[in-house]
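Journal club prep, notes for RB
We'll compare a predicted complex against what the paper describes. Inputs for the fe (ii) ion case:
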Amino acid sequence: MIVGLFSLFKKQVSEPLDLSLIGVDMHSHLIPGIDDGSNSMDESIAMLAKFEHLGYRKVITTPHIMSEVYNNTSEIILKGLDEVREEAKKHGLKIEIDAAAEYYFDDYLVNLVKKREVLTFGDQYVLVEFSFHTPPEYDDLLFFEMQMARYKPVLAHFERYPYFHGSTEKAKEYRDKGAQIQININSLTGNYGPEVRKQAEKLIDQNLVDFIGSDCHRMQHLVTMEENLNKPYLAKLSQLTLKNQSL
Ligand SMILES: [Fe+2]
């Protein structure tokens, strides 16, 4: 009986995910004061120290670029990156820090792509987010322009779009068209609700995930991750062929 209980207990607990296996985080909001992420340099440094403590070797931070909401430019982001790097160095942080952007999909982005004026990371990847309310229209146009420019779209937090819930067909379709799928670690902790969690689990089970990101806006996101590293689906991440380490 005692042995039986012990094995039952063993089955429910997974090995905690070692985040150094992910290595590189490619979705976060760590440049202070330019979007809805970090509010101050102190907060940014504290979060970077936490990333380092969790085992990450590099962070590619991705401030929002969303016309009329977050009017960021490549120049604003790269200037912010310089300031964060300098401050991190002063604090003795070892973690490598780079930047790209999280582009909202609209005409403004399509024009930036046409002008070849987007911030990429890794192998010409561009992080793109869709509206949370309305399914994307003209996404074929975006894919066409991206292809012409030799950019590779990475679809941000793909599990969070309610209009795609319940099916993974769209993820398959977009991947067939050359897009990469990114999910948030905290979707697996239940941070965004049960539907988002279920969708993230489905994408993992069907091996449709290319990148995993923290989408860290504040310290609490990293604390939630840290507290849930032994959740079964977080542990499963180490079995996927993710592209984070290639960055
Ligand atoms: Fe984000």
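Talking point for the session: The first helix runs from residue 2 to 12.
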